[in-house]
User: What shape does this take?
Amino acid sequence: MMTNTEVLLQLKNLKKYFEFNKGLFGQNKTVLKAVDDVSLEIKKGETLGLVGESGCGKSTLGRTIIKLYDVTGGKIIYDGEDITGLNDREMLPYRKKLQMIFQDPYASLNSRMTVGDIIGEPLDIHGIASGSERKEIIHDLLNKVGLTSEHANRYPHEFSGGQRQRIGIARALAVKPDFIVCDEPISALDVSIQAQVVNLLEDLQEEMGLTYLFIAHDLSMVRHISDRVGVMYLGRLVELAASDELYDKPLHPYTKALLSAVPIPDPKLAGQKKRIILKGDVPSPINPPSGCRFRTRCRFAEEICREAVPEFKEAEPGRFAACHLVDKIN
Amino acid sequence: MANTKIADISADKFRPLPDTEKKQNEIVRPSITYWQDVWFRLKQNKRATLGLYIIIFLLLLAVFGPLLSPYSYSDQFLDKQGLGPSKEFWFGTDTLGRDIFVRVLYGARISLAVGFLASVINLTIGVLYGGISGYFGGRVDNIMMRIVDMFYSIPLILYVILLMVILGPGLKSIFIALGCIYWVEMARIVRGQVLSLKEQEFVLAARALGADTKRILLRHLIPNCMGPIIITVTMNIPKAIFTEAFLSFIGLGVSAPMASWGMLASEAMPAIRSYPHILFFPAMAISITMLAFNFLGDGLRDALDPRLRK
Ligand SMILES: Nc1ncnc2c1ncn2[C@@H]1O[C@H](COP(=O)(O)OP(=O)(O)O)[C@@H](O)[C@H]1O
Ligand SMILES: [Mg+2]
Assistant: This one.
């Protein structure tokens, strides 16, 4: 799948904090560090999977990358250009290059617009086409995602979840993007439909040379589609590796635990593997544990994990992990 | 079946579906928009339909009624004072010998003008103000809503009295006073809706596509608040009409010989014992209008409520 090694998108210590003002005059500020110090690179044409339990900041990261949220700190570099500080107008040309597919196929389509208008809206915004040309493009897009041109005059509520997700994909494709954040695009769908949508996304990637950031909360789902996989925990990236390597030999204790929870289709192999049960719940991102954020649930945790934040560094060639004990436990 | 081996099934049993069968996967139900659906349910509600017909009838009467009557609202027949309803004067005459029927029709004009004003103010200032406040949120929202609170905390009577001091009594003062406060409730309702809608993924999708604030408000957020907006308007119109009637009744409204329902009722008060019909007709007009708008408002509320959708 990977076509070359040119970097398309680079995140440097990206941070997104949400602030809540409790008091009447803005005193008692509470800060929720939804994304904290994430650095990674996405190469042209690749699919980078992003996994982690729900609430760990995956969606926030995806939305911050395409600048739906203001960036609290760090940099987003797209194709060599720093887009972190761009205002809405300066961002407009990049809106054609970076797109997003959303998780909830019911909430992500405006129920008061026809499918044709939903898909046509990006064409109107960017002045790409109008009149019969617009209609033609809409029909092409519908066909491309496996729907028919008659669907253009219908309203979203007439479609199933899988069809709605296809409409969302067509809308994102309308601007001919290079990079798409897929935020759990299949989590809300029936298992029987999931494969169809994944296949569609893969076909489109091949056809249009797309680069994906593919978010999922389930490791088994991203393995198939991703070239590399990043694992997030409480706003931080804890491990990043090529997907086969990650599955064969996870380095970070959190990845190990996540992988042990993935069901294995072969009962013989399943018997051999012991499940690592994660203790307790995910701590609150408002008040994360000191040092390594995973230490409260980590079975290897030592004194150093409480004291220092582990650096996200190359643990093995091409493999990154944020763990003090990475050499010791592997 | 159980002892059929896989090998026994011939390969030609597996072939692609003919096109005719593929057609079955298409949606055949005719496309029904949300509004067609609402209209359908509204029509099934008898009281709401009745309300709607009464409102249309009133509108027609108010516009064309006075043209059909041989009298004008100020014509006096000094020899025919305080007559009861008859063929000549359908609703009778008042103590000054004026035809009550035509005066009630003129009153309807004023009342409906007031209702129209209230809905225009609601739909423009109210919707936009609330939409902007909710969409921007944070500090902008805070300031805009405190201004709303300010308008809301001053009683209407005070506006009217103050305006009367400046502009003198009359319809103008009432219109401006109503205009000052009749958008407030709508602004609050739209703001609440927009606050919850703006985090939805379809709004994020529009922003990701580069839609500007105007587009997001007018194409995405406000159309999705249409239900509560329509309900609020239909509930606010009778309130405004009643307020005007009440203000005219206590003498703060239009002045003679103009007629508004509230004023007609108030004029009838001194002679209520001898000529009760003079009070009856304007009071009936007010009541029927209130009921009609409230029936329609209730019906719309039911028809627009998504929880009742089948
Ligand atoms: N708009 C927001 N305002 C405040 N907090 C938010 C907002 N969006 C997300 N969060 C918080 O940020 C954290 C990460 O959320 P999210 O990115 O949605 O996680 P995920 O997609 O991994 O499930 C959660 O604790 C969530 O409550
Ligand atoms: Mg999410």
About this structure: Residues A 58-59, 103, 184 surround magnesium ion (ligand 2) (CB under 6 Å).
